[in-house]
Hints:
The chain is an alpha/beta fold. The protein is built from seven helices and 17 strands.
Amino acid sequence: MNNKKTIMSGLKTKDFDFDLPEELIAQTPANKRGEDRLLVLDRITGEYTDTLISKFVNLIDSDSVLVVNNSKVRKARVYATSETGGKVEFLFLEEMDDHSWNCMVTKAKKQRIGKKYTFEDNIEGEIIGQKEDGTKYVKFSKEISEDWFLKFGHVPLPPYIKREDEFRDESRYQTVYAKNEGSVAAPTAGLHFTKQILEQIKAKGVTIVEVTLHVGMGTFMPVRAENLDDHDMHWERYSIAPEVAQIINNAKKEGRKIVATGTTSIRTLESAVTEEGILPAGLGRTNLFIKPGYKFQIVDQLLTNFHTPESTLMVLVSAFATKESIFKAYKHAVDEKYRFFSYGDAMFIK
């Protein structure tokens, strides 16, 4: 469990707002995976250049370690019929020890404890409790299997994608190395990698390692607190294999760069690291909120997408570079009509 404390920042949520034209929010992926644009930002000088994700191999040092998140997106959005005949949408977030599930539910205030629902395959569900954040605990008449999600679930596209999920989303809203089911949103920086790009990176001498962090509901939840210090960060589960921890620890000792693919990879590594700078293997849970002033112990470079205004991810990248350089780079991205968010273009902070 992660109890790491971040420094009090005194920052306001509105400090991380910026103007984003709606037409720049990507509603579909690029025609082909690996064809997106890439904005390269030097975190020391604040200088930036435009290139393509296909050229990423030229930007990464040959002896570095590239860390990717292999969590797989579950088709976690499922429809049910209420006792009164209404259609209700459930987003399955996490399975509990008793095989009940913590779910986000549409029209949450109406979905009270004791209400029953009929799901596909004649499975009955009943709300048996709720959390302070409004999510519900739902008990089912049968254990829910991954096959059931595959058959009856929908891809949980983020709310800013204003369309229903399509067949192509089943593969495109998933990294090519996804293997451990459990996320309700894709670790989107990894969506840019094709098998060919990864092979080119390996051929250059870069070591690629995998960690797992299951992306939770925090991805969908806006920061409602006026002050960032008052925001309660959501908890997410992660795991780091012993051989991965060893590779990263050796690289740090030898002064080689650790490159995180996405904010999920960076939060996994920075959550697990000890005060002595050693990365242990194992399972954990984290609610680490990285804000400006945070001292990064593991990660040297970051490949990431463009994030939503006033989000915890916008705060994280502003901590990794500086708020000033991030906002200048984002203004350039808007001016140059980069595509934003999950299906959008990428940024490499080096």
